[in-house]
Design a protein that fits this description.
Blueprint (H helix, E strand, L loop, with lengths): L5 H5 L4 E4 L5 E2 L4 E2 L2 H13 L4 E4 L7 H9 L4 E3 L6
Parallel strand pairs: 1-4, 4-5
Antiparallel strand pairs: 2-3
Protein name: UDP-glucose/GDP-mannose dehydrogenase family, NAD binding domain
InterPro entries: NAD(P)-bd_dom_sf (IPR036291)
Length: 83
């Protein structure tokens, strides 16, 4: 079932797999991970036990840092070019 309602989408999910834009800023030499951060925050608020799989391009060690900041081991990075 498709939905735009994040509560409905996340509340009973075993896994949440997502990819959002992470535009690379050549001036700052960094990726903009705001949309990734927002999805992770929403998922953890609604269903802290679900496994979160990031398919977006993120900086090296991003998953380790974000997992630590949210005190969870449920965040996994799977490069977008892997199937």
């Amino acid at each position: 079932m498709a939905t735009l309602n994040k509560e409905m989408a996340y509340q009973n999910a075993d896994y949440v797999i997502f990819a959002t834009p992470t535009d690379y800023d050549t001036q700052c030499n960094s990726f903009n991970t705001q949309t990734v951060d927002a999805v992770i925050r929403d998922v953890l608020l609604i269903n802290p036990d679900t496994i979160i799989i990031i398919k977006s391009t993120v900086p090296i060690d991003y998953t380790k840092r974000i997992s630590s900041s949210h005190q969870t081991n449920n965040i996994i990075f799977s490069p977008e070019f892997f199937t």
